[in-house]
Amino acid sequence: MNEDNYLNAGYTLRSWFFTTDHKRIAILYFASLIFFFFIGGAAATLIRIELATPQADLVSSDMYNRLFTMHGVIIVWFFLIPSIPNTLGNFIVPLMIGARDLAFPRLNLLSWYLFMLGGCVTLFAIAAGGIDTGWTFYTPFSTLYSNSYVAVAVTGVFIAGFSSILTGLNFIVTIHRLRAPGLTWYRLPLFLWSLYAPSVILVLATPVLAITLVLIVVERLLGVGFFDPRIGGDPLLFQHLFWFYSHPAVYIMILPGMGVINELISCFSRKAVFGYKFVAWASVAIAALGFLVWGHHMFVSGQSLLASLVFSFMSFVVAVPSAIKVFNWTATLHKGSIRFDAPMLYALAFIGLFTIGGLTGLFLACLAYDVHATDTYFVVAHFHYIMVGGMVTAYFGGLHYWWPKITGRLYSEYWARTAAVLIFFGFNLTFFPQFILGAEGMPRRYHVYPPEFQMWNVLSSGGAVILAAAYLLPLVYLAYSLFFGKRAPANPWDAPGLEWQTPSPPPEFNFETQPVVTRPPYQYTPDFRAEPQNA
Amino acid sequence: MPNRPAFAPQYVSTRHRDETAELGMWVFIATEVLLFGGLILAYCVFRHTYPEAFAAASRRTEIAIGTANTAILLTSSFLVACAVDAFTEETRKICVALLAGAIALGLLFVLLKGVEYAGEYREHLVPGIDFSFDDKFANGAKLFFLFYFVATAIHALHMLIGISLLAVIARLTWRRAPTTRHRAALHSVALYWHFVDAVWIFLFALIYLPGRAS
User: Fold this and answer.
1) How far is A284 from chain B (nearest CA, A)?
2) pLDDT at B2 over 70
3) Is CATH 1.20.120.80 the right assignment for the domain spanning B14-208?
4) Which of A195, A229, A346, B204 is 20 to 30 A removed from A270 (C-alpha atoms)?
5) What total of structural domains would you count in chain A?
6) What are the chain A neighbours of B155 within 8 Å (beta carbons)?
7) A46 contacts A58 by C-beta, under 8 angstroms
8) What is the mean pLDDT of chain A?
């Protein structure tokens, strides 16, 4: 462990809460996100417990509405959207490009404060009585009829949106302007391409959500608004505006995850990522096409058939760059010297789960089948495969991979592998039965169901228990490693990336001297010289 | 860092820092375009659906104040552009005077906007609070005035932020010799001010002109 690092640069509260060091801000985000993850996760657990039996026996209908809304709002805006960009991204981006900080460190800190303010406002809405609209805030229910705390919750999300925008802006400018000498665009690790593309989405889509939320609040306060059908307003316009943000937001959530997977797959098969340029531009293509598919959320909302057909076609087109990524990861594994360290287990789990999520996405892009599956558990299972099976798995993979760099400690490889396997198993047991339930017609957002659906629901709830336990495990062994783990060397994975060329944990300004890059990324030696972390 | 240079450690030079700041402002403006974009989309949808009501409602707006405000804002943008040019040691006072002029015009704009709002309140044109309109067009007119109030209020908020930023820059320029850091700040604020101006040009056309063309 090096003597002067960012962790021992100061011990006062002030040195944390007024820091402009991207690494410390990343830690602030880590802590906040763990908090929000467990709030959202607790709501999910209650939902699954309730659904273990066909009758309502734990919560009332009204309470159930508030539970799944809380789960959605917290997990989407206060965990998934900021997860990889604001924690791993914040920490790793400057290190990866050989910079001493992000371009705008104070903006970065402001982003965290806005995030926390938005989070507190939203938590207040939940504590005061909750929101019953679902995370999508559909009008006219959210504007005219709901008696819950919609305006407060919407304000919280609005504030958090500006935190996202500032982060996206910071990444875009940083990646453009602060790359080390010699680090051309095609020498960037693919993680950076996968953060650049969603940053563009953050900057261009989030303001549309912001103005839409403003319109909801105006409508609730004044009693009339754009989405009010009584005066000729259009509730569907809300859905268009909302999904114009929220569909690209799906790619905000998954693209950084894909970026992490590139790093993991190439490191643990000791090979450069196959087809670098294709993978890089696939990220850009996904971000660009992602703006043109929002209407596939509205196939049964009454939009024109022509619009539905075009949106359906565009949704199929998004599958092309996504598939390029999956095929290229598989090709990277081919003839690689694969080692199954914990991060690699997460990466392989990601590929499998993301592929299932992606392929079932094609079912839903298909107009005829989507009409059948709209608002069923098929949809719920599909997007959980992408967001939990994909994104959260990638998040854990990245967390394990960079943990030695971030903390300067090694975690227990045995427990990390156990958790990875348990997460994969628990996840599939939770969500695969939901595909079957959805295909058989069980609608989402109900807490009672016909008894013939019970077997699959029990399986799903059982899986949720395993999944919950598996998500708690890393909290334990990672926390343990903080205090009792072995000291990590600078480069425990024998990796060529710039972030591994500085001590663990990195010094306050990352690099002693400005690194100069002379070669493409992922120049791994075929044999793993670093020892496996012991159990 | 033994002896700290004048710029933050992630930059290699002051120029590097200043150009980065300007790029940041451009990205921020991209965000802002989409913020107003969502609103203008809603306007287009409803104007397409209720063309006559929108024309009738638009004729009730105060075109005199709207036009005066357009002239005021364009002039203030011109003054800011000149101030950017006058940002040198020798012409420092001129620069401050130009900024002060731009701030005064900005405040005048907001003041006139307030006068306009008061007039609309007296004429019962505020949806949700006090609204009455020819029954045939009442609903469409309500949507029009909703757009009018939401869009101009958000624009006025941008004006107030811009005025405060200009005031900060003017004060800095007044008190200290110009540095490249201040120049970069002035550049970014000027960009922002021109953007707020450009948004108004769109709003002016959308709010005051329908129904008056023929």
Assistant:
1) 17
2) no
3) yes
4) A195
5) 1
6) none
7) yes
8) 94
